[in-house]
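Async update (no meeting this week)

Hi team, since we skipped the sync, here's where things stand on the single-chain job. The sequence we agreed to prioritize is pasted below, unchanged from the tracker. I ran it this morning and attached the output directly underneath so nobody has to dig for it. Comments welcome in thread, and please keep replies under the output.
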Amino acid sequence: MRILIFSMLFWICHNNAEAQKGKIEGKVTDASTGQPLTGVSVLLNNAKGTSTDINGNYIITTEGSKIVSLVFSYNGTTQQIEGIEITEGKTTVQDLAMQLKSHLVQEVVVKTTSTARKETAASLISFQKNTNTVASVISSEAIRRSPDRTSGEVLKRIPGASIQEGKFIIVRGLADRYNQAMINGILLTSTEPDRKTFSFDLIPASMIDNIIINKAFVPELPGEWAGGLIQVNTKDIPSKNFFNIQIGSGFNTQTVGKNFFTDKAGSLDWLGVDDGSRALPAAYITKSAFASLSREEKTNIGKQMKSNWMADQISGPLNFSLQLNGGFQKKIFNKTVGGNIGITYNRNNQRLDLLNRQNRISSRFTSVESSFHDQRYNQSTIAGAFASLAFLLNPKNKISLKSIINVNGSSVITQRSGIDVSRADSIL
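Output:
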């Protein structure tokens, strides 16, 4: 116990000591392509320095609060940014989109003042201007300045794109099934069982590095789309430890405070997963095999079916949403290790009034075969998680692992009343 208490005190004191230092960090990209630049020399006040890693990121720690300048050098191009304010115990972000020159006769030095976290957006705009295809982009800087919680909300801000039901994207008027989604260069499968689409509300906005929507084909990317190719790139190693939690609720006037019917809940219904309580009995067989059984055998199988044919009546609940995301960065054996994790959860309640009618049309007249009034009660659950882990071996090599999982489940109860003329009976 004493060792544990001593370790905790040491860790707290170490964090407090680190908090007294100022830190400046950022990302260096090619202004013409938007790609990160590896091995860029970064000097603080022409003295203390470092170089960018494989992702174009750099970090420099300094003592106290001060006004500093940074000098970036890469392949004969030097760019200097002055007037950067570093505050003790805080992290200052200074990104840069370098204007690289080719076939230089002599070194080029460009001097500017601090751009206050705008360079990443500028680099992606430069990428959009100079790319050999039609593309729309949005950077992490723009995402940080917005109140968006998910990638679906972020995509609404891209020209030519709109979001349906808060998660399905429409590009240039073409429905979601004509679009293709990728995350970190990997094609994403459909999240819906009955349609080709991806639910973009599963990826937290705080974990996104940038989003690119290609609207014209390029040889190096998949071509299984007609509207747009949505490329979502997530962060590998965060600049500092963070943890965010968002809890939300809402109500539907058609359900809240009114009678609402649900299925008899299983232990995992809140996750949108059946725990096996709705499974057919082990003795259940195919229809053709069942038809060949004797009446006694059929009755025995029927007795094994669960007798839970009635729905439960409750008062319409509130909708609920939860989003958790966090990240860490630390040194292990003098190597940088970091990761991100994001969890989303949404549970919505909906009631629909539907008219289900079938007519018979003959040469002389039209008659009603059946007419039903359906009240459909739907509880939908969306749960998803995204995680990444990266190990930076050296400035030019890294190992990363990314994984995503999602669950989309619905529990539907239909209360039907009406008449079926063809059967000469009514269903109440």
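Quick observations from my side:
Confidence is low (pLDDT under 50) at residues 1-19, 114-119.
The two ends are 68 Å apart (CA to CA).
Reply here if anything looks off.
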